[in-house]
Amino acid sequence: MAQKRVVIKRAGQLLTLAGASKAPKRKEEMNELGLIENGAVAIEGGRILAVGTQADVEGVLDQQWGSQWHTDEEIEQIDADGRLVMPGLVDPHTHLVFGGTREYELEMRLNGAKYLDILAAGGGILASTRMTRAASEEDLIEQSTKRLDQFLKHGVTTVEAKSGYGLTLEDELKQLRVAKRLGEQHPVDVISTFMGAHAIPPEYKGRSNDYVDLVIEEMLPIVAGENLASFCDVFCEEGVFTIEQSERILEAGKKVGLTPKVHADEIVALGGAELAARVGAISADHLLRSSDEGIVAMAEAGVIAVLLPGTAFFLMAEYARARDMIEAGVPVALSTDRNPGSSPTESLWTIMNLACLNMRMTPAEVITAATINAAHAIGKAEEVGSLEVGKKADLLMMDAPNYPYLQYNFGVNLVDTVVKNGQVFIRGGQRV
Ligand code: NIG
Ligand code: FE
Fold it and tell me: Which of 193, 263, 315, 335 to mutate to test the pocket of ligand 1 (most atoms within 8 A of CB)?
């Protein structure tokens, strides 16, 4: 199937996001979408064969496929009919695999309970940990597949997925194995992150350093040895893991080949952005409370800011200072943070909308942030995040005449067609 030839023609606006596979877009570059009017894309073997104006692509195909290609019934010809075509979205920060849900906490928070207080009382992440530990691999596959199906319907073709609801060696491995299986059996690509340091499990209450030792000495070597993750992440937060503990874990992760990521300055300004710069993290995520110094340190070290405005919205908190970060030269990416507590959504479009209206990112910047910059945040920018010859044919046809419309017609899913690895999985908004 993936070997099939496909042509998408008559795109009103074709957003290629080309030219940034080597380094993420910063500052004014984030507004450059590589826009081509009246564009086309040709696909062969699951990869992009040609991309450009309709005339240019037709010229390439006449040469490569012969002049009869227009009428060849073996070639799938998709008429965009003036709709917008763009790369599949990349979600660089999710907690995809977990058991159960926590809708009751929303009511508690609306009645005044604080997110970290719910966690300290054994709820929050620890409630999800109990449900995840109790779930079998098959249960987790079933529950997480539904979430991946939603991602796909919303045009997300690659996701990062963190462990961190197991908090024992066996249960962390269970989550990571599920993520790996999902990546193999579902159209959406899944890139794994080990996050054993997501919370201090009840067995280690009051002995957090012992738990950090367990993460470093037992979990990290096995996770890396079994090749179950590419990244190592830590919830560096007041009452969770301190700066010192986080640094120890991230440095130990580096030694076994896992690239650092940090849940930084989400609720309290602990200096997570500075930590990310110091350890050479590929990204620092959340950053609602980051200091000016932290932002400058990230810009200098080239750390990508993965902003998650869904959590600010859902926790009724202040938003991250996206404008200050972009002006300081920090490359910004966006993500759902899909998780059961602080951001239970698969709609990266909702996140882009929040980023646009509540963090004042432009309609162009949010697209860059959810495609090529997001791909950089998970080390996949050579493969996905833009439409360029040789890259994976992951692309969307949107029910929109132009890109600002994507932020304007809010609250609905404008995805018409999703192509993943050259195969159509969503057509007319429905799974095929
Ligand atoms: O990214 N902040 C820590 N972890 C998640 C929330 C996890 C949860 O509440 O289950 C986050 O917001
Ligand atoms: Fe998160």
Answer: 263
Contact 325, 363 (CB under 8 A): no
Q: Strand 231-235's sheet: what is its strand order? A: 89-91, 156-162, 189-197, 231-235, 259-264, 283-286, 304-307, 332-334
Cβ(241) to ligand 1 under 6 A?
Answer: no
The predicted-structure confidence for 290-310, as pLDDT tens digits, reads as follows: 999 999 999 999 999 999 999
* Ligand approaching nearest to the C-alpha of 340: 1
Find tokens 């990416």 and name the residue. 333
CA 274 to mean position of chain CA atoms: 22
Cβ count near 121 (within 10 Å):
12
Choose one of 125, 262, 334 to mutate for the ligand 1 pocket test, by most ligand atoms within 8 angstroms of C-beta.
Answer: 125
Q: pTM score > 0.85 for this model?
A: yes
pLDDT in tens, 320-356: 999 999 999 999 999 999 999 999 999 999 999 999 9
Tokens of 146: 């539904």
Ligand 1 midpoint to CA 125 (Å)? 7
